[in-house]
Amino acid sequence: MSVIINIMAFILVFIFIVVVHEFGHYLFAVLFGVKVHEFAIGFGPAIYRRKGKKTDFRINVFPLGGYVRLKGEDPEEQEDPDSLYGVAAWKRFLIVLAGPVFSILAGYLLFVLIISGWGYTPIIIDKVIPGSPAQQAGLQPDDIVLKLNGKHVFDTTDMTSIIRKGKPLTLEVLRNAERITVKVTPALTQKEYFVYLKDVKGDIGGKVESVNNIPFERYMAKYQKEYVTIKSEVGELKGLLDNVSVLPERYAIGIYYGQFSNVFAKDNELFKKGDKLLKVEDMEVQSTNDLMDVVTALGLKPDELYIQFSGDKVTQVLRPLPEMTKVLYESNGTQKEVIVSKEKLLSVLSVPGVLEVKAPKLKPRGLEAISVSVARSNRLALYIWKTLPGVFLGRNLQEVSGPVGVVQVIGQAVQFGLETILTVVAIITINLGIFNLFPLPALDGGRIIFALAEMISRRKINRNVENLIHTVGFFLLLGFLFFMTFVDISRLFTR
């Protein structure tokens, strides 16, 4: 049943997106006197048809797309004054451009509706590292970041990329309903190592002297999976070095971003909605960072360790929790304690959306809602424009989805409600508009290039040559669609 709901939701969303896009083409074609033979949603035989005075409106059996068929698109049709190639090149340029523009504008308008109606989730500071530039500047946990260097910021990736430039920053934060301006200069950090060991014996802490009698950082430059002996100020640790992740030296201000809180957002097999997680064994739970440490510790087996190093100093050691784990939580103002298997607790904490989002929703009013919506949409559009070209070269594949992936995303959005559905629709329709602007054959962008070439050269381009190029491009795009479908399916089997 859920699969059917996902598919139906996908079809309805796709129909909306297609209608908006094709209506742009249709409207400008009519405006410039170009006859529209058909306005179709889907491909193949018609399941619904309504004949207008000049246009045949139809819904076809395969709803994965749509089109407007304009007079003159067929090479055998004459270039009459009411045909696509019978009007001036600048008019043809605008007719083709209107589809992507309408798609992008629809996404922008949806974001205005979403942010005006529901607000948006801002960046929130989860934890400030003692002695860091952030602490020295006066930043505090639970500060909400509104602007960075005078511009709205919505994405932690964006904020991090700006911080890593190492230049002085001006943050506008919201603290206890008061807007505060904070100036902070990033500092260069040491390399960080996140080390996972198995078959562990011994102890570790403080400064590390050596790994297999080699200075720590020199060894880590060429680490390999092997049994190691790590000597430190606290003691000696032996075990199988199974995995190492390295964060290079980078500019940072010393904050962790908040993602989810320790309050449960919905009922589950262990806790009720509104219950607050306080402690798991001796691990206090107050922040997103604490919760991530708990999840990591729950996943460790009895002889495993997860160790974090800053340079050659141990900054954190996560040890496995017992098979039956003691949990302290608050329910209806009363502290309670329960002992559960760590597998069950890990299962509950791993459910998407089980915990409340840490940052409160911000709901700007009036003109500010429009300016925030436009800024949010601009950020998304710029990200898409930078990311999509790499997909054709085999890069950024993890950041995009084909038809199967889109069905899944829309299906998940349905479970979260109207706001999430509209957000997904806004993202997809902006994606579609920008994708169609790429100057590739068979896309609107390719047709725009031909119209521009004719406008500049003031000479007609051979329509047979143009149609051949678009035909070849169509089959290449079809191949790309099949490739992305394969990528989507392969993801299903690797999860």
Describe this structure in words.
There is one protein chain. This protein has 495 residues and is an alpha+beta fold. Among the domains are: 2-116 and 405-494, no CATH class; 123-188, Pdz3 Domain (Roll), CATH 2.30.42.10. The chain is built from twelve helices and 22 strands. The protein has helices at 2-31, 89-117, 133-137, 156-163, 216-220, 288-298, 342-349, 366-391, 403-416, 418-437, 444-457, 463-494; strands at residues 36-51, 56-70, 123-128, 144-148, 151-152, 169-175, 178-184, 187-188, 192-202, 208-211, 226-232, 236-247, 251-252, 255-257, 260-264, 276-280, 283-284, 305-310, 313-318, 324-331, 334-341, 355-357. The strands form six sheets. Strands 3, 4, 5, 6, 7 and 14 form a six-stranded antiparallel beta sheet that branches. A six-stranded antiparallel beta sheet has the order 10-11-12-9-18-19. A four-stranded antiparallel beta sheet has the order 17-16-20-21. α2 (89-117) runs antiparallel to α10. The mean pLDDT is 88.
Please summarize what this structure is.
The protein is α+β, with helices and mostly antiparallel strands and 495 residues long.
Structural class: alpha+beta
Total strands: the figure is 22
Radius of gyration: 28 Å
> What portion of residues belong to β-strands?
25-35%
- Fraction of residues in helices? 40-55%
Largest sheet: 6 strands, antiparallel
Distance between the termini: 22 Å
Inertia-based shape: elongated
Determine the number of helices (DSSP H or I, runs of at least 4 residues): 12
Average pLDDT works out at 88
The residue ranges in which pLDDT falls below 50 over 5 or more consecutive positions are none
Cofactor: Zn(2+)
Organism: Fervidobacterium islandicum
GO molecular function, one term: metalloendopeptidase activity
Keywords: Hydrolase, Membrane, Metalloprotease, Protease, Transmembrane, Transmembrane helix, Zinc
